[in-house]
């Protein structure tokens, strides 16, 4: 699902960051859809019913000088908007 150059890191109890270098917003959106679908399939495959949800946020860096911390905060804000709206969007 991810490439060798992609980076995934746990940044909190249940929060993770995925850095996708050289990726367009369209490709990042496609990846987040695949991640969401994978979580849905894993939940359905379980013998026991476990209800959970996943909220995702996307932020893009326009150029290499973009501050990574600001990019992270924007993605975090987008994730919380989606979480509060329960839209399942990115």
TrEMBL record:
This is Diguanylate cyclase (GGDEF)-like protein. Gene3D superfamilies: 3.30.70.270. It comes from Halanaerobium congolense. GO terms for molecular function: diguanylate cyclase activity. Residues 1-90 form the GGDEF domain. PANTHER family: DIGUANYLATE CYCLASE DGCM-RELATED (PTHR45138:SF9), REGULATORY COMPONENTS OF SENSORY TRANSDUCTION SYSTEM (PTHR45138).
